[in-house]
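Chain A, query sequence.
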Amino acid sequence: MKKLVIALVALLLVAAAVYVGSQRLFVQPIAEPAPVSLSGAAATEGEIRCRGRLVPARWLGLTFGTSGRVGRIAVQEGSTVKRGDLLAKLEGEESELDLPAAEQRLAAARARLAQAQARPLPEELRAAEARVASAKARLDTLRASPTAAELEEASLRLQQARNRLWGAQLARDAIGGSSASSASYEQARASVAQAEIEVRLSELAFERVKGGPSPAEVVAAEAALAQEQAALARLKMGPSPEELASLKAPVAEAEIALEQLREARARAAEARRLYAPFDGTITSIAIREGEAVNPSLAAMILADLSELQVETTDLSELYVTRVRPDMPVEVVIPGSGLPILQGRLSHVSPQGTVSAGGEATYRAIITLDRQEPALRWGMSAHLTFGKTVGRIRR
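Chain A, predicted structure.
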């Protein structure tokens, strides 16, 4: 009977041990060596354990602004660079033909404006005044016509034409119309006909002089005089505000076009070059010289390795509500031989990542209290939230 009681007590102890062990396994969703522990002393002190990985506080994938073929790579992996340093560039340059053409258009527009704004030269004034005098003399002549001299000249020309006609008629009649002299006779007849034409033209000219200028001729002469007088006045007064505005507009348009062209050329040149946006280290290069690239390809990774932080990889939705800003975090870099580090929770992502099994994990950032020279981007870390500085294991 005593042996039976002892056996029953042993069985009860084994069952209790199995139950306690199963409860420990149930609340540890992450395997060793960094399990989440909600039981025992850690649970009562609010500690939460999870995994993380070291990442730079600042890093960036650099891309070209355009497609092209890589002409030169100016750095290597591990190169330390300063902000503004040239890292790489693509082949090709902008055409130089369009820029001089735009500059010439601007220069021509400015020259026309400057010419209009300049005071007239003495020779320009003299030439304009001479044109006015000539137009006025023409109009005066038309208005005074016909003069006695003009009438006499026209009459004399008519008389000369008639005399030539009479001479030609006499020569024709002297030859007669015999067959022996038919060729001479025909030539004489032609001379008579030509003389008759000249007489008729002289008669018309005499009538035109006698009748004076037509109203249309006078109007045309008056218009020509008015035009020359207006040109002289404009020359003396300079361009009107409207004329200046019409000359300034092409200058402004040409200036804008030239500036836009220069900016476009500068943007195109910048798009073919890759510069460092901040001080840091080139941690990887994904391109080669002569290789075709496009803006969707991250050509290089630039990181500021002077400050590393820890980014969690499996902070579960079950425990994310228990962490708070500035919460102390113990950081262990397994297998590195580094001392245990202390950090503070600085950020928790507001949106989780849902796994295939339906559990959400959240990205949290832990800022380290100090930077160890041996730390490297990508090292894994075991994190314990809630550990205070005084309880760090040494």
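Residues 343 and 369 are 5 Å apart (CA to CA). The first strand starts at residue 48 and ends at 62.
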